[in-house]
Specification:
Mean pLDDT: 76
Number of helices: 0
Low-confidence stretches: 120-124
Order of helices and strands: EEEEEEEEEEEEEE
Strand order of the largest sheet: 7-6-1-4-12
Oligomer: single chain
Radius of gyration: 19 Å
Distance between the termini: 35 Å
Length: 202
């Protein structure tokens, strides 16, 4: 029986990791601008550690990773999209195997994400996402069978450093009607922005 699946993962610029359709982790934390002993911007790229054992089951499993590298600001990107992943599987009888890329992985690109509108105060007002442009059912079953084989790239991050920051979480909140005291900006393309006046935790 599988006892542990210690996994190290990072990406340029950000990733979300699914196992059998279930969101497991996202990161990396403070990509490229983590806080060092003498201030910010240590230029260290971090990796997260997560145990995949609770999400794996006997038989075939699907490990899927979404990597997003869209940004008008070069401060959060090293200019090349890439994924760093390895997992050491430990079994109850003491056996160990290593699962790492890119051998056995497939990959594709998508136009589902794009930069948001530019702002005078920020490089970008975030990402735009169009679900209709995303490959169908790729996190769980057959959406990735016709993709090309993943290829190795030279690391653009230098030496990866273990993150000591708790892995970010992602929660789904039910849709509600914003109260009247929120500043809501509507646009002619049917999009809108809600200014909450405070930081919303990830």
């Amino acid at each position: 029986a599988l006892k542990a699946a210690a996994t190290r993962i990072s990406a340029g610029r950000t990733y979300r990791l699914w196992v059998n359709g279930q969101l497991v982790a996202r990161g990396p934390d403070d990509a490229g601008s983590d806080v060092g002993e003498t201030g910010r911007w240590t230029h260290q790229w971090l990796y997260n550690t997560v145990d995949l054992a609770p999400y794996l089951h006997p038989g075939s499993n699907v490990v899927a990773v979404e990597v997003v590298n869209v940004s008008s600001s070069s401060a959060f990107s090293l200019g090349k999209t890439g994924l760093a992943f390895d997992a050491e599987l430990t079994y109850s009888d003491g056996r160990r195997t290593v699962m790492a890329g890119p051998e056995g992985w497939t990959a594709t690109t998508t136009q589902a994400y794009s930069d948001g509108p530019l702002s005078a105060l920020r490089a970008s007002e975030g990402l735009r996402y169009d679900a209709s442009l995303e490959p169908a059912d790729w996190r769980r079953s057959s959406g990735w069978h016709d993709w090309a084989a993943a290829v190795p790239i030279d690391s653009v991050w230098g030496v990866l450093h273990a993150s000591h920051i708790p892995t970010r979480i992602e929660a789904v909140w039910p849709a509600t009607r914003p109260s009247d005291n929120h500043d809501i900006t509507t646009r002619g393309d049917s999009t809108f922005t809600i200014h909450f006046g405070r930081v919303i935790s990830a």
